[in-house]
Each structure stands twice: as C-alpha cells, then as structure tokens.
Amino acid sequence: MRAFLAGAVALLTIALAPASGRAEPLGLQISVQPLIVQFNVAPGGQASTHVTIKNVGTDAAKITASQIDWDTTVDGTVRTSKPGTMGASSLNPYLRLSGGELTLAPGQTEELTLSLVLPSTFDAAPRNYWGGYFIRAASASGPGSIGVGANVLVYETIGNPPRHLKLTSLRVEDAGNGNVRLLARMQNDGGMFVRPQIRMQVAQGGRVVQSRDDSTPAIFAGAARVYNRTLQGLAPGKYMLQLTVDFGGDTLLEGTTEFTVR
C-alpha cells in the first residue's frame, strides 16, 4: 500500500537560526518533499513512500534524520518535541526512514524510503496517530557549522473515525488605526483530525469588498483552534462577514457576523 501525500507537497526549505542569532550560511540550503504524509494502514499491514532530499545550495551538506513528536497549539502553531512526548498517540515506534547519515554535493538528490509497519496486535479501534522526522543539514566542512532543516509530518488513520468540526464563536473586534480583527474559535468534536480550508468574505451593502482563502494546521480530535486574522483597508461603515470552513466532512461549516468600522 502506498501513502497518500496530503495537501500540496511543494518543495520547502526552512532555515533554523542558531541561538546566537546569526544568519545561516547562504551556501547551505536543502529542499525536502513531501512535507506531509498520510497513511491508512490496518493492524498487520504496512505502507511506504519516498522522501526526496535535494541540496539546492552551493556547499556540500551532511544530512541527518531524527524522529520527532509534534502537535498543534490552539493558535495553530506546530510544536515539535522529543519522541515519546505524545504517548499513545505517537506513531514513531512504527516509523522508519532509510538512509541514515549521508552527504550531498551541491545539486545532488537522494531518495529515502519512509515506511510504516504495524504489528497484527496493534489496536484496531478507529483513531488517529501521528509522528515524523526532522531532516537536518549541516555543512560537511566540519563541526560547529550552522544547519538548516525541515519537518516531515506523518499521519496514520485506523478505521474510519467520525469527522466533525463546530464553530463555537465568531466575532470581529477593533484592532486600532481603522483595522479590525476576526476571531473564530473552532472545536473538533469528532474522532478524526481535520485540516480546515477557510474562505472569508466581507460584504458591504450586498457587495463583496474583500475575499480571502486560507487554511490552518491540523486540529486533532478534542482540540480547539482560534483562527485570528486582521482586516485592513476597510472604509468606515457597516459590514457583514461570512466564514465558510471545509473540514472534509459531509457539510460545510458556516458562520456570519456583522461589524462596524468607525
């Protein structure tokens, strides 16, 4: 079974600034894809996919991979931690990434295999698990060099947990200097993680004056998310805001609220 590569798996390079605050060397850059992998493996089954790492910089790069646990906070920040932090939700004991430590010359590409193998004794109850890897590159010229890296986030779904998201509050408040701030609170009251796609429309007198498509990182079962965006460039007057959220369920989540710009 192959993995489903969720969302847009476009090339990404993330620079990690050192504690001293110095910028990383311009010659050290890598790309990693995909950044999100979704498995649907039953107990006793296995699946795999390829992770492609390319040295897009001008320096030789020493590549290492280490497992991470991760979750998302109420404001949508992806927070990484050491393996085991997520306890029973962690997928890491069953994830493997081939390749070990390797060195890539400028322009060189390496394809690793990311595998998930579940024992037949694995819990068959419908639910989600997640884990991943941090892919790090350091200069091959010697120790002490500054690194860059990227996270590969992995999801696993057992069975078919119910998927549902509700909008618990929606308001627009004054943000000062003629700006307003949208605050929407969502609650995942289902049993399946969701990655909401959001459309926001602002209308005045029945005419749409602003429209925006957006997204927010995964909201796991039982977790809440506050979606916070500032709206600028609105002339004084009364407005209607409509928020539409596609969370992958059978219906769309919708909410409207009125507000005034003074």
**N/C terminus separation:** 57 Å
Overall body shape: flat
CATH structural fold name of the largest domain: Immunoglobulin-like
Largest sheet: 7 strands, mixed
Give me the CATH architecture of the largest domain, please.
Answer: Sandwich
> What structural category arises from helix and sheet content?
mainly beta
Give the count of helical stretches: 0
Show unreliable segments.
4-25
What does it look like?
- The protein has about 260 residues and is mostly beta strands.
- Helix content is about 0%, strand content about 55%.
- The strands form four sheets. Strands 1, 3, 5, 6, 8, 10 and 11 form a seven-stranded mixed sheet that branches.
- Mean pLDDT is about 90; it is low at about 5-25.
Keywords:
single chain; 262 residues; Immunoglobulin-like; seven-stranded mixed sheet; flat
Task: Please sum up the structure shown.
The protein has no helices and 18 strands.
Secondary structure topology:
Blueprint: E1 14-15, E2 30-33, E3 36-39, E4 46-55, E5 61-72, E6 78-81, E7 95-97, E8 102-104, E9 109-117, E10 127-139, E11 148-158, E12 166-176, E13 179-187, E14 197-204, E15 207-215, E16 224-231, E17 237-246, E18 253-261
Parallel strand pairs: 3-11
Antiparallel strand pairs: 1-11, 2-4, 4-9, 5-6, 5-8, 5-10, 7-9, 10-11, 12-13, 13-16, 14-15, 14-17, 17-18
